[in-house]
Structure formats: C-alpha cells, structure tokens
Amino acid sequence: MSAGNQAVGKRISGVLASLRQWILPLAALTLIFAPPSVAQATGKVHAQSLAGLSLEQLGNVEVTTASKEPEELWQTPAAVYVLTQQDIRRSGATSIPEALRLVPGVEVARIDSGHWAVGIRGFGSTFSKSVLVLIDGRSVYTPLFAGVYWDVQNVLLDDVERIEVIRGPGGTIWGANAVNGIINIITKSATQTHGALVSAGGGSVDQGTGAARYGGTLGRNLNYRFYGLGFTRGPEFHSDQRNFDDWRAGQAGFRTDWTSRGSNDFTAEGDMYRGEVGGGTSVGIYQPPSQMVLEANAEVAGGNVMGNWRHRFGDNSDFRFQGYYDRTSRLTPQLGEKRDTFDLDFLYHLGLGARQDLLLGAGARWSPDAITQTIPTLDIAPHQETDKIYSWFGQDKIALVADKLWLTLGSKFEHNNYTGFEAQPDARLLFTPVPHQAFWIAATRAVRTPSRLDRDLLLTDFLGAPPPTYLRVVGSSDFDSEHLVGTEIGYRGVIGRNFFLDITGFRNSYDDLYGYGTASVFLEPSPAPAHLVFQLPLANALEGDTEGVEVAPNWKVSNWWELRGSYSFLHLVVSDQRGFTDALNTASDNGSSPHHEAGLQSLFDLPRKIELDLTYRYVSALPAQAVRAYQTGDVRLGWKPAPRLELSIVGRNLLQPEHEEFGGDPGPLVGIKRSVYAQITWTEPEQQP
Amino acid sequence: MRISLAGARRFRMRRAKWSLGRLCAACLLPLLFFTPSIRAQEKPSEYDVKAAYLFTFGKFVTWPPAVKERATEPFTICILGQDPFKGALDAIVSQGRIAGLPAATQRLSKLDPDTIARCRVIFISSSEEKQLEQILASLGRAQILTVSDIAGFSRRGGMIEFVLDQDKVRFTVNLAAARSAGLVLSSELLKVALTVREDGRHGE
Question: Which of A21, A99, A176, A662 has its C-alpha lying 20 to 30 A from A653's C-alpha?
C-alpha cells in the first residue's frame, strides 16, 4: 500500500471512528428530546384516567417521583448521599457493599467472594478503619480492629428503606470511628412490610439465594414482620486454582413497631445468623521455620436484639432512648474472637423558639471480648478485655437569618478505656438563598480511638533462613488516637426542572496515623529452634493530607429515563511523622486509594413494566495493591409481568472475564468474575379483613 | 517474563475496548425498538396520583350539615402555596362532580378567612412547611379536609398525609383531627389508609 493510500485509509477509518463516536450519542439525544411535549400531554390524560380509580386502586399505581432527595437533605450541611430502596433494587446488588458502589466518594473494592475493602475518601483496606457503619442505629464495627466484617452484615435488601452515606468527619454526633464517614443503614418500619414476600435467585457466582418475609398488624397500632434469608456464593477467579473463597450464610430476624397514643413509638428488632466464609491467610510457623498458607472457612455466628423508644413532647421537642445487645463469634484457622456488646444511647431534641434547635445526647457502650489463640504466631494478649466508652454531646443549630442561614455548633466528649477523654468539636454553616439551593461549609475535628489490635497484637511472620528470621508486629500500650481536622465546602441544588447537582470539596489533615515504630532485633530461644526476631511496634508514626472533589449529578431526562453520574477525585499524601521512618505503611497508604473514580448509571422505565438499568464504572490504579485501573459495567433487566411478580436478570462486571480490585489474600490477586444472576420475587399484599 | 506480561496486558485492554463497544450496541439496540411505544409512557407522575386522590377523597368524607347547606357553591379543592400538580388537578376537576356538586380548584397564597370558607378540601403544599404549625392553628376547627405531603403532617395535626411507599402513593390518617373539625371519614377510607392515628396532637 502506498503512503497516500494509507493516509486515505486512515482518514476513512478516522471518519468511521468519529461516526461511531457520534452516532450513539446522537441516537441517545434524539431519544431525549423527542418525547417531552408528548409527555406533557399524556400527563393530563393520565390524571383524567386516574380519576376513575378507587382508593385501593390508586394505592397500587406505581408512580415516578419528581425528586428523590428527601427534604431533610436541604437542611443538612454535610456531604450526604441517600441510596433509596429503589436505588438498591435497581443496582442489582446482592450485598450492602455492592450497593455502596453507587455512592460518590466511597471506594468499594472486592477482595474476594466474601471480603471487601470499603473506604470513604481514602484509606480503604481489608481492615478499613475510621468508617462507622450503623444498622438501625446499631454500630457494626468491631473494636477488635476498628473496622467492619462485611461478611456478616447480610441485611434483607428488600427491607432496607434507605442507606445514608455521610462522607467526611461526623464525630460530633456519631462518636469515635466516624472519622472518614458514616454508613447508616435504615430498615423499613414494620408498617411498610405488611403481607408476604418470597424471592429466589441463582446465577454463576451468586449461586443460590432465597428469602421470605411475612408481616402484618396485631390490633391497629402494633406492626410486625419476620424474615429469613440464605445464600451460597461461589469463589471468584483464582489464576492458581485455589478456589478457597466460597461463602454461605443464613439469617433470620424480626421487627415490631408500635405506636402508642401518638406520642410514643416503640421499635424492637433482632437478628440471628450463621455462616461460613472461605478465606486464605499466610501465617508464620516456628517448626519447621516457614510460612504457610491456611485456607479454611471462617465460622461466623451472631445475633442481636434492640429496643428503641421515641417520645414526643409536642412539636418541638422529643427524646429517643435506645439499647441493644449484640453478640458476634468468629472462628478462623488463625484466631477466634467472641464479643458481647451492650449499648445504651439517649438523644434529646428541643426547639428553642423559632431560632434554635438543640440536640443533646449521652451514650455508654460496654464490649467484653474473648480471644482464642489457635496458632503460636498470632495472638491478642490479654485474651480478655472490655472496651468501655462513655460519651456526651451537645449541638445547637441557630438560624442566623430565618429560613436562609444556619450555624450549627457542637461537640462530643468521649471517654474510652485506652486514651481517656477525647473532644470532637464541629462547626457548620448552611445557606439556602432559595428553596432547593443549598451551600454549606464545615470544619470538624474527629478521632479514631485505638482498637484492640493497636494495643495488644502479636503477629509473627517468617522472613527467611538460615538463621531462621521472623518479623514480628506488636501492639503498643502507648498507641494513641488518630486525629483528623477536616474542612469541607459543598453545594447542592436543583437546576432547571429535572437536574440535581451535588458538589463537595474537602481537605483533611491527619495526625498520629497508624504505622510502625522503630524496629528492634533480638534472639529468641523459644519456641525452638532459636530464631532471630525483627520486631516492629505499632505506633502513631504517620501523618497525611487528603484533598478531593466529589460530583454527583442526577438528570431526570424524562418520566421514563434517569441518568446519574458520579465522579470522585482524591489526592492523598501520607508521610512519616517526625522521628519515624516507615516506608512500608506510607507506600501502602499512598498507593491503595484510587485517585479517580467515575460512574454513570442509566435507568429506563420501558413499556410493559420493564426496567433496563445500565451501570458503567471506572476506578483508577492502586499501585500498592498491584491493581490496574479498570472499567466495567453492569446491566439489569427487570420485568413485572403481574402486579405481584417481579423477575430480574443482572449481568455484572460484563466488560471482561475478570478483573482485580484489591489485594489481601495470599497468592496472586483474586479476579472478580463476570457474572449473571436471575431472581424471582413474589409479593402478596395483606388480606383486607 | 516481563515482556510477555506487558503483552498480555495490552491484549486484555484491547479486548476490553471491543467488548465495551459491543455492550453499548447491545444495550442501545433494544432502545431503538422501543422508541415508538416509549412515548406512551407507562407511569403517571406522583402528583397525577395525588391529584386523583384529592378528587376522590371527597366521596369518602361527610361534612357537617352547615357546610352541606351551602350546596349552591361548587365543591372547591384549594391549594395553599406552590402548586405542584402542573395542571393535573385542574384536568380532573374540570370534568367531574363531587358529592353531586360541580368541582372547582382555587389557589391560595395565604390563608384569609373569607377565601378559606369556600374550601372543602385544602392541600397544603410542601412550600408551606415552615409555617405549617401556624397554618393548622389558624385553620383551627374549620370544616375543611386538610391534606398534605409534608413529612409528619398527620402527626402534627393534619388529617391526611400522603406517603410514598415503594413508588406508590399511600396515605396516613389522623382521625382525631378530622373528628375535631366535625368531619366523618368513611370506614372504606380508613381501611385503605396505611395507618390511622386515633389521638390528636401532642397526645391530647
């Protein structure tokens, strides 16, 4: 081929490429702009045809809602994102972490079938610290490592009313561990779950799921529901064929809601679960001196009961009293942990005139644990310890200019058994010049108090031989709290009729972050053979800064099409604090959070009760995890052939056979597979007496 | 070793691109088929349904005799504050009769005693949330069915509160509030309600 021909060829293929680039968007654009006039006309037709329906029929008409943003959102000077039941259902997610992928600023990386690294604004890892997770007000983070075992948070997703994700420090109200953010999972009131629901599903990785729920009323004001669920999940992709990460669990629970005389509401709820979570861990052995990979199931079990009483004194004042007991038990080949948590919380809210809104609270938590050592190279000593936390907080929201400008000031004071008193003050300013336009700024100090690991860990890994040499990481009794001072600025508003935009910028400055202190070397005669130990104590060795921007647009293109986007930028620099050199943890912190994350979701309501939902996401590389940037997509097709029947089929991670998201297991990185999953759900409304 | 790894990576990336293109095509194709019928959208908006409710409620409420005697007036549904219905309420009302009377709508920007006397039903728009306590106080025991979608409306002393429940519009009733205004709500209405609150405000 001559050079000229080549040039022409190139130009043609360029034209073709640009045609390809443009045709699809153009097709999409014609779809966007064609229907509105028709839609307006049909609005009236709809209204008129609806006028002939009975009350009962009206209650069964599915509607599209103008704005999913709840009213409280406009009054919140924080970076809040709300995932509604609808969002969760249409995401096709089968677990809470998967549903969280839709939220800007939240990094969800699947390590293997049952393990995730979930971080907010950086610092995601298997043992993600500093993110507080609550289910109906019950804290599910473990004081063992100040993180969350996602493999036992198997809420029935149909019963979730919404998940509120607050990015940024929320220490004032929520207490310790709410440093980088709060994930608040709220289940439906039992008044909303009357009738029966049965669902079953199966697929290539989510091999089998089943759930059933029944709810109703006793008398006029006592509402209840019971549910049970179970699932079995296959391993993800292992290039070395060690498919250790299969996962099975079952859970059952109840919730009752009782309204008494209008001014008192009582909620009682509880769950019990049991599961087996496959995992792999690399552990050191003394005899023979070596490192070995243990692959076995973690046996997990637990249960909780909780009571909540809300009382209103008129319109401007109420209190809430809550108590729960939570038991968790986890036995892995390398360690066993049993924990009982008792928690009491009290919250009092008082409107003072038209200008001030006061919130006062107090709480106590008592959490004894019992550790079982199963291998000589991992221990947490002493084996029994009781975490005790007492906290008080006060917050006042002052209207500086009525209906337009509010100042919120508050602080939490907490006493814990590791570091004593900690203060977490917070100041926020909210400006709403006109309804549905809000600007806010905030400055907060938050702390992450030490966990059991930080203080009491003894972990020994084999480094090499001869002579037999080991690396030992030990907790230290002077490990102090990690500190954060954060500033944030945000805007949210409705632009035009159908476009919602949320933008937040933040800057966080961390001190006393977790790292390794100065190493020491010594010879240890026992256990035999005598060996050399490099010992690294845990210390508040690092400091860091993060900056970032999160953008979440939401465009209701028409009655039947919604587009949602999210983009998060994160710049994270962690370095040694004065007097420390810890290359390992600085490298790991700096290279384990994505700098860019982007997502686009398109939700179609098609005729004949068909929903088509497309999700695309991009996550930039994590050099410290050896994870490359990836982009992938999900498709969900839902169909309601009858009012009580819903069928859906979900294809996940469709753009490649498998992709890696995070390290953590021994051996090569686990690939997250392309998968298909289908589900059938039958709902039976309550029989009218 | 390194080279072959890089090669494999390139190969994978190309595959990813191809399958992205294919995915887009696969997803947009069904759209093209659906385009003609898509225009006849299936779901009404939230406020279409709320408008239909406002129109229908009148059939399930008995007003005190004093109100009924003014039977020459049209049956008026008032909207206080910003109108969210985008013409849907007018479209319904213009065609119908409620309780044997021609129906009408009226928009109010504030409550004044002369105009509210004409309302049988008043819808309090969410734009009035801040003044809700005042509004309910000044309505007092006026014989008007109060309806709103402001959160906590029925708890705060309103009669019927719209609630969104899984993409469906349902409602809760404060029976005591209706009673104190002299309105009788039929058992059919109460049966369909999500919850019925028997007490009044503040647990009176």
Answer: A21
In CATH terms, A43-391+404-684 corresponds, of 3.30.450.40, 3.40.50.1820, 2.40.170.20, 2.70.40.10, to 2.40.170.20
Q: Is B112 on the interface with A (CB under 8 A)?
A: no
Residue B164 and residue B106 in one domain? yes
**Closest chain B residue to the Cα of A60, Cα to Cα:** B168
Mean pLDDT, range A636-648, rounded to an integer: 92
Same domain, B60 and B97: yes
User: Do residues A211 and A199 make contact, with C-beta atoms less than 8 angstroms apart?
Assistant: yes
Question: Which residues on chain A are in Cβ contact (under 8 Å) with B194?
Answer: 191-192
A364 and chain B in contact, CB less than 8 A: no
Please write down the HEC assignment for all residues of B32-84: HHHHHHHCCCCCCEHHHHHHHHHHHHHHHEECCHHHHHCCCCCEEEEEECCCC
Give the pLDDT confidence of A392-441 residue by residue, as tens digits: 989 998 999 987 899 999 998 999 999 999 999 999 999 988 878 899 99
- Chain B hits for A39, Cβ within 8 Å: 39, 41
Cα nearest neighbour of A317 on chain B: B202
Contacts of A56 in chain B (CB under 8 A): 192
Long-range (24+ apart) CB contacts under 8 A made by A301-305 are A301/A273, A301/A274, A301/A275, A301/A328, A301/A329, A302/A152, A302/A272, A302/A273, A302/A326, A302/A327, A302/A328, A302/A329, A303/A270, A303/A271, A303/A272, A303/A273, A303/A327, A304/A138, A304/A270, A304/A271, A305/A268, A305/A269, A305/A270
Residue A330 has pLDDT above 60, yes or no: yes
Q: CB–CB of B56 and A58 under 8 A?
A: yes
Residue numbers in B near A494 (CB within 8 A): none
B125 shares a domain with B81: yes
Amino acid at B28: L
Walk along chain B (204 residues) and give the pLDDT tens digit of each residue. 233 333 333 333 333 334 444 444 444 444 433 333 333 345 678 888 999 999 889 888 988 887 767 666 788 899 998 888 888 888 888 877 887 788 888 888 888 777 788 888 999 998 888 788 888 888 888 889 999 998 889 888 899 999 887 678 899 999 889 998 889 999 888 888 888 887 644 333
Are B113 and B34 within one domain?
no
User: Which pLDDT score is estimated for A172?
Assistant: 67
Between the CA of residue A181 and those of A131, A145, A170, what are the distances in Å?
A: 5, 17, 6
Each domain of chain A, given as residue ranges in start order, spans 3-34, 43-391+404-684
H-run or E-run covering A319: strand A317-332
B7 and B83 both lie in a single domain: no
Return the closest-CA partner of residue A260 out of B114, B70, B198: B198
Classify residue A126 as exposed, middle or buried by CB count within 10 Å of its CB (0-12, 13-18, 19+): middle
- Please name the member of A59, A605, A688 whose beta carbon is closest to the beta carbon of B168: A59
Angle between helices B46-57 and A36-50 (to 10 degrees): 20
Q: Does A615 touch chain B (CB under 8 A)?
A: no
pLDDT over threshold 80, residue A21: no
Residue A53 confidence (pLDDT) = 82
Tell me the residue range of the domain where B15 lies.
Answer: 1-42
**B112 three-state secondary structure:** coil
How many angstroms separate the CA of residue B50 from the nearest CA in chain A? 9
Among B35, B127, B200, whose Cβ lies nearest the Cβ of A435?
B127
Residue A689 has which token pair?
């007496």
Please identify among residues 569-608 of chain A the ones whose CB lies closer than 8 Å to any CB of chain B.
604-608
Chain A residues lying within 8 Å of B32, measured CB to CB: 27
Considering only residues 291 to 330 of chain A, which have any Cβ-Cβ distance to chain B shorter than 8 Å? 312-315
> Domain total for chain B?
2
